[in-house]
Amino acid sequence: MRRNNDILILGLGNEVLGDESLGIDLVKELEIQDNYPLTDYRFSYIGGLELLEFIQDYTKLVIIDTIESADGTEGSVRVMNTDDYRETLHLSSPHDMSFNTALLMGRKLGFSIPEQIMIIAIEIIPDLTLRNTLRENIQNNFEGILSETRNHIEQFVSITHNC
After folding, report:
1. Pick from 138, 98, 114: which is nearest to 3 by CA?
2. What share of the chain has pLDDT > 70, as a percent?
């Protein structure tokens, strides 16, 4: 499927597990503001192999997801690429293949996979409470997280446009 745009910004998450919806919430807000030309905005609840359907035919891919780690600070924003990323909450699943394996398989099968991929992961505190709102601390810092995310995307798009 050929896309009209070059860049995909993809938010991953789970909208009924509070802070796990942050990747989706950020992409929805970025789409409203629509600062980036030639860009599609999408979100998904799935990871692993099923992501190939979303990402094929784009030249650049930005994935926004959440991460839970023992050494992270809640609300901190990490930027990774496919060589150095740590598993985020939704990018890979224990019931599916890892994201890197899915990329490798997609390329071997002839899928047009983006060569330039940036993963933005926002640290959250583990919480399996069902709710459709962000926790207060994340909600209070949402604008700062959005601003930092936007800055990383703008640098990525600028750098990759100059390559």
Report:
1. 114
2. 81
Euclidean distance between CA atoms 87 and 93, whole angstroms? 9
CB of 112 closer than 8 Å to CB of 6: no
- Amino acid 163: pLDDT: 46
Looking at residue 95, its pLDDT comes to 54
What domains are defined for the chain? 7-161 (3.40.50.1450)
pTM: 0.86
Distance (Å) of CA 92 to CA 36, 49, 130: 27, 8, 21
The predicted structure's pLDDT at residue 86: 62
Sign of the CA dihedral running 124, 127, 128, 131: negative
Question: Do 55 and 11 meet the contact criterion of CB atoms below 8 Å apart?
Answer: no
Alpha carbon separation from 158 to 27, 36, 103, 118, 120 (Å, rounded): 19, 11, 24, 13, 16
Q: Give the C-alpha separation, 134 to 152, whole Å.
A: 22
* Count of other CB atoms within 10 angstroms of residue 161: 11
Cβ-contact 137, 74 below 8 angstroms: yes
